[in-house]
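User: I'm new to structure prediction. If I give you an amino acid sequence, what do you actually give back? Let's try with this one:
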Amino acid sequence: MKPFIVTLVVVSVTVAAGTLIYLNRQKTPPAPAQVAQSSPSQMPPESNAGPKPEVPETTPANPDRPAPASIPAMTANETKPEGSTNAIHQLVDGLLSAKTGEQKHALFQQLLKSGRLDEAIAELKQRTADDPNNPRLPTTLGEAQLNKLRAIRDAGGDPNDIGILAMQADQSFNAALKIDPSNWEAQFVKATSMSYWPADPARDNDVVQRLSSLIDQQETMAPQPQFAQTYVILGNEYQKIGKPDYALQTWRLGLAKFPGDPTLQGKINSVPRP
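Assistant: Good question. You get back a string of structure tokens that encode the predicted 3D arrangement of the chain. For your 274 residues, that looks like this:
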């Protein structure tokens, strides 16, 4: 059991770091795909590439709704007034309707600082049960679980809790993809999380296939700034499995499509010149 827990700890720590990076950097999210669409297929070194990215966003459910104001934390024995419950509803509404990764990340930080992330997770679980055909709900739930995982890790919490949350987050992304296999955000976050697991030929090949397929899907969608991160992560994955030439080709392909992306330019510049 110990080796399993150790693996989960390593994975969950890196997963949390990678996913949260995405939350900090994401731009305007792509329009949501309709329920039930297609998924991945392997592609050459230049399809899906990228440095450990961040977590994409779901399509806004309520685009015009402003982000809610800060909410004070509550003590463990304090009875939650109706206004407090409404505040959590509003915060979750904000997470689901966030137009950028920065907005979503700020809301998760607000929930963490106020000690109310567990309430938001409970709310998301309830909404997922009430609306089982909405892929945005399990996707956002998975992101919330990763945020909680990071908070526990940073506080030096129980490794078992970290491992359990890592698995729960992955299950949430799987649930979202079962509803809508073409959901960009769920695909990206899941593949990014998988790329942080210890090296394993079968899993690493799966990551390459998922990211390559996602790049193919992006070609059929209106360009979005965050799409560059798929190339970053795919290139990183190629480096991880010992294919530096494929990694460089992937980053170059991404930069050709997103010439202003500093991360891709930095990855290319970091490659030693002959």
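You can read the tokens as a compact description of the fold. Here is one thing that stands out. The radius of gyration is 18 Å.
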